[in-house]
Amino acid sequence: MACFTNHLVLVLSSSAAVLLAVVLGTAASGAPPSYCAVGKAIPHSPLSGCAWYVATRSCDMAVSMLPVLKETCCGQLEHIPAECRCRALRVMMEAPLVVGADTGAQRRCRAAQPRFAPAVVAAGECGLRTVHGWPFCNALDAE
Description:
One of its GO terms (molecular function) is serine-type endopeptidase inhibitor activity. The protein is an all-alpha fold. The chain is about 50% helix and about 0% strand.
């Protein structure tokens, strides 16, 4: 009986250690919490102001409204919890704005937007903390 009890304690201790390692590994990986979902911490049509700002900046459009677009974008991002900002930008970029008259310009613009979008949180742009703890998002496909 004592052998069985010792074995049971060993199995339970091992299981608890594995569970703790999984939990800590997930937290350390920078993965956003489960509440960072569309309809929860991220609005259903997220960051419309950021979509215009990202398109304007990445598609080399000279727009006098750029400071207003940036301010609107940063304001929208501020209302999203820090842990969810990178994911919100990724969701926003699932449907990049099509800007440009010819097909080639549209293709270049569509490709440039996801490359610029992670930089919106950076110090030179909005300077907002993210899931990583500082103003930084990985490439959007890595979040």
